[in-house]
Amino acid sequence: DAGITQSPRHKVTETGTPVTLRCHQTENHRYMYWYRQDPGHGLRLIHYSYGVKDTDKGEVSDGYSVSRSKTEDFLLTLESATSSQTSVYFCAIRRGGGTDTQYFGPGTRLTVL
Amino acid sequence: GQQVMQIPQYQHVQEGEDFTTYCNSSTTLSNIQWYKQRPGGHPVFLIQLVKSGEVKKQKRLTFQFGEAKKNSSLHITATQTTDVGTYFCADQTGANNLFFGTGTRLTVIP
Predict the structure, then answer these.
(1) How many C-beta atoms lie closer than 10 Å to residue A49's C-beta?
(2) Is A11 near chain B, with CB under 8 Å?
(3) Hey, are the CB atoms on B1 and A58 less than 8 Å from each other?
(4) Which residues in B have their CB inside 8 Å of a CB on A?
(5) Residue of B nearest to A34 (CA)
(6) What is the mean pLDDT of chain B?
(7) What is the per-residue pLDDT for B18?
(8) Which of A11, A13, A64, A12 lies closest to A34, judged by CA?
(9) B66-85: per-residue pLDDT in tens?
(10) I need a surface site. Which of B8, B24, B46, B64 has the fewest CB within 10 A?
């Protein structure tokens, strides 16, 4: 859709291990977002970025960190994964032009055992 | 904190029946966006409503924004199996972010 890829698409890991999810875009959009999706909660914002090295917290940021060293890549890190972080993670970009429409990547399904 | 509630959480309809999902907030909504997520897929933008009382149509889908900007609805006429999925509303928060509702999962029985 908007040239967004996420890697890995699926991951199973153990409690206490670090995990990094990658979001890559090809269209040089300024704004990028990380959400998690859980049954009954919809999509909840974890962190977002408004430029290289410019990031801010969202609604559910505890236990997560992000980095954006290049426009095209936005990384989400779980420093020490917990079972409560088992979820589907979506990356999104916001296209400019006066609209706040967001375009989502395909998602990463993360299972923490 | 901000809460955007959607009802119902689940809806099963027979193919050809109509379907409506409602998005409600205790606070005034800024702009409402609607997204659809197919099973196993990612959310896809459908439409944005900005003005009080606004009504927009996309084929069999009708979107409304309440007069007081505290609610919105999505109505599908004569559902088809291709309408299956979860429908989310989202409110713009601040200048750059969206706050998503909890979603309504639609099942269409052929």
Answers:
(1) 23
(2) no
(3) no
(4) 1, 6, 9, 31, 33, 41-45, 48, 88, 90, 92, 96-103
(5) B97
(6) 93
(7) 98
(8) A64
(9) 999 999 999 999 999 999 99
(10) B8
| Residue A101 predicted with pLDDT over 90 | no
Report yes or no: B99 and B91 within 8 Å, Cβ to Cβ.
yes
CB-based contact A45 B101, cutoff 8 Å: no
Say which residue the tokens 């670090």 belong to: A18
Instruction: Give the whole-angstrom CA distance, residue A93 versus residue A50.
Output: 10
* Per-residue model confidence as pLDDT tens digits over A29-47: 999 999 999 987 889 999 9
Contact of B39 with A102, CB cutoff 8 Å: no
Q: Which of A91, A82, A100, A111 is nearest to A47 (CA)?
A: A91
Q: Which amino acid is at A64?
A: Y
| DSSP string for residues in A19-82 | EEEEEEESS--SEEEEEEEETTTEEEEEEEEEETTEEEE-TT-TTEEEEEEETTEEEEEESS--
Cα(A95)–Cα(B48) distance, rounded to whole angstroms?
14
Taking only the tens place, the pLDDT of each residue in A46-85 is 999 999 999 999 989 999 999 999 999 999 999 999 999 9
